[in-house]
Amino acid sequence: MRIGSPKEIKNHEYRVGLTPESAKELVMQGHEVWIETQAGAGIDANDDQYVAAGAKIVDGPDPIFAECEMVVKVKEPQSVERKKLREGQILYTYLHLAPDADQTKELLDSGVTAIAYETVTGPRGQLPLLKPMSQVAGRMSVQAGASALEKAHGGRGVLLGGVPGVMPGKVVVIGGGVVGFNAAQMAVGLGADVTILDRDPEVLEKVGTHFEARASTRFSNAANLYDAVTNADLVIGAVLIPGAAAPKLVTRDTLRDMQKGAVLVDVAIDQGGCFETSKPTTHADPTYVIDDVVHYCVANMPGAVARTSTYALNNVTLPHALRIARMGWKDALAADPHLAEGLNVHRGEVTYEAVATELGYDYRPTAELLR
């Protein structure tokens, strides 16, 4: 199979779909790999390294979209890229379609077969291709929030860890999954006063046992959520419903009762965000202020630490890429029901139920296509 990886063009996105090492694995199994020139510059991988791995360097993205059977990316294709996709082509990347009607329509119009990293499952219901980026985003959320809390950045002027004789900052983490757990780890490590909210008693037990007295846990009902958020210095939204739009847990009314200069970091922004006032931002312009509350809603947070993120991502995406390249998309999905969960769009049909429900499309189960 001919596989291509174009340079990412989303604002301040420095990751790349394939590392030189991943390209070499594909080449060693008999596949042809095309890499857009300078696609790996953001992870300090130059064209010569890809050539040494056996890949072909092409000038610009057009040859990849026009001639490659599978396109491997990191972020969802931007509008200019979606116009280059074609029927019968495989797109393998993060998509986050539920809150993105325009992208969904253009993918359907293109006839592409789109496999989304974020909905591929694991044997225990986990999301293994999302997990490493969730780990990165969770840890970065505290760094970003700590910076936004500085007075010069519009925040309350609070140091999360405090100093002797001065109370530490209060950090509230909404959601105790992978993002929330990693955010809590970082906040606890800085010495902050940390509270984790979740609706799953098993999750609360797990994080409570892990952090013991270093963090508090609360059941996430409306009263507890309001109390925690309105008293917080930093609130991290870490709620995920696989493939679906995130629930709006912090309303505009609650925002008005928060402390002036408090910070919201919405890690769920790829899925529409879990704060009512969230809207996507970029690394170039990461924050905005509503009702004296600073919002940080960068939709590709891990892109800021591109080298770490790319290698962590390739560790989990490459095995499926190898299988798809060897077997073709249909046989690969038929052989692996977990990979089959990643199919979101195929030749003009929505094949992921949560996306179809959210955006009002007819749903075509992947199992029907595979039969």
From TrEMBL:
Q: List residues binding substrate.
A: 15, 75
Q: Domain Alanine dehydrogenase/pyridine nucleotide transhydrogenase N-terminal, which positions?
A: 4-137
* SMART domains named in the record: AlaDh_PNT_C, AlaDh_PNT_N
List, for all copies, the residue spans of the domain called Alanine dehydrogenase/pyridine nucleotide transhydrogenase NAD(H)-binding.
149-297
Provide the GO MF annotations for this entry.
Answer: alanine dehydrogenase activity; nucleotide binding
- Residues that hold NAD(+) according to the record: 134, 198, 220, 239-240, 267-270, 298-301
Q: Which domain of life is it from?
A: Bacteria
Catalytic activity of the protein: L-alanine + NAD(+) + H2O = pyruvate + NH4(+) + NADH + H(+)
Kindly report, in one word, the top-level EC class recorded for this enzyme: oxidoreductase
Q: Which InterPro entries match?
A: Ala_DH, Ala_DH/PNT_CS2, AlaDH/PNT_N, AlaDH/PNT_NAD(H)-bd, NAD(P)-bd_dom_sf
Q: Name one GO biological process term.
A: L-alanine catabolic process
* Gene3D superfamilies (alphabetical): NAD(P)-binding Rossmann-like Domain
User: Which segments cross the bilayer?
Assistant: none
Enumerate the active-site residues: 96 (proton donor/acceptor), 270 (proton donor/acceptor)
A cellular component term from Gene Ontology for this protein is: plasma membrane
Q: What is its EC number?
A: 1.4.1.1
Q: List keywords of the entry alphabetically.
A: NAD, Nucleotide-binding, Oxidoreductase
Q: Which family does it belong to?
A: Belongs to the AlaDH/PNT family.
Q: What is this protein's record name?
A: Alanine dehydrogenase
Q: Which organism is it from?
A: Qipengyuania citrea
Gene for this chain: ald
